[in-house]
Each structure stands twice: as structure tokens, then as C-alpha cells.
Amino acid sequence: MKGVDPWIKGARPGFTLIELLLVIAIIGIMSALVISAIGNAAQDSRNVIARQQQVVIQEALNAWISSSSSGTNGLRAARTAYAGAGTHTAKLTLIQNYLGADTYGHFMDFSSGDTLRSDAMTKIGATLEFSGWTTSNYPSVELIQ
To answer: Are 123 and 48 a contacting pair, CB within 8 Å?
Structure first.
């Protein structure tokens, strides 16, 4: 049997084409799952960042209201000043002293017209809006998606 080709005899020194295709398909499926998971994690982190930024703006608004309505000014004066800032960007400017300079600058860099956005909000297609303020409600900052 010395002159017999090992392929003919049934000895298999490597993989068949079917085995290779099966391994490549399995690796492809696993890669797609990993890439999908990474993409979802990035989107989830942008959503979390946008919510955190909403909270920061709400806290700045609360601090501005507290400061503006203290002493002889009263709540009516704060409500009048808030209503006088007719646009969302004007309201953001109203509370800028209660935000970090970087935070205020970041919002102004990504906002246009009366649309308030940050980088994360731009990527998820969301905006911030200030609610109205009447005698029967308190102003809030809403994340609109």
C-alpha cells in the first residue's frame, strides 16, 4: 500500500469545503450578534446621557426659580421673567448662571433656532423643551423624542 494516495484511502489531513463553510457561517453569525449588541449599548448610553442632561437642566431651572423668587422678588416676578423668555433657547440663557460654562456652551453649540439639543440628543433625534408656567403648574424640562 505504499504508493496509494492518502486522499483516496480515506485519510483526511484537512477540512472539507462544507466544514469550512459551516465554520465561516457560524463565525459570521456570532460577529453579527456582537456588533448588534455593541450598537445597542451605544444607543442605550446616548439615551442615558440625554436623560441625565435633562435632569441637569431641570435642576438649574429649579435653582433659578428658587433664587429669582427669594427675598422681595416673589414667585410672581420669577414667573413673569420666565414667561418673558419666549423661546426655549432664551429660557436656557435665563438659567445659564446655574449651569456649568461647558454645559451651557455644549447646548448652544448643538442647538439651532428654538431647538435645544446636545450631541447625544442629536444622535438619538431628541430635543429639550421647557414647559409653560402658570399659577396652577410648575415649569419642567421635557425630553422630546
So the answer is: no
What does the block give as the cell for 138?
410648575
Judge whether 139 and 82 are in contact, CB under 8 Å.
Answer: yes
**How many C-beta atoms lie closer than 10 Å to residue 104's C-beta?**
18
**138 residue type, one letter:** Y
Distance separating the N- and C-terminal Cα atoms of the chain? 76
Q: pTM for the complete prediction?
A: 0.74
Give the model's pLDDT for residue 60. 96
Q: pLDDT (tens digit, 9 = 90+) per residue, 32-82?
A: 998 888 878 888 899 999 999 999 999 999 999 999 888 787 888 899 999
CA distance 54 to 72: 30
CA dihedral of 108, 112, 117, 123, whole degrees rounded to 10: -120
Other Cβ atoms closer than 10 A to 51: 13
Pairing relationship of beta strands 141-144 and 127-130 according to DSSP bridges: antiparallel
Instruction: Of 60, 72, 53, give the one whose Cα is nearest residue 139.
Output: 60
Q: Could you identify the residue written with the cell 414667585?
A: 75
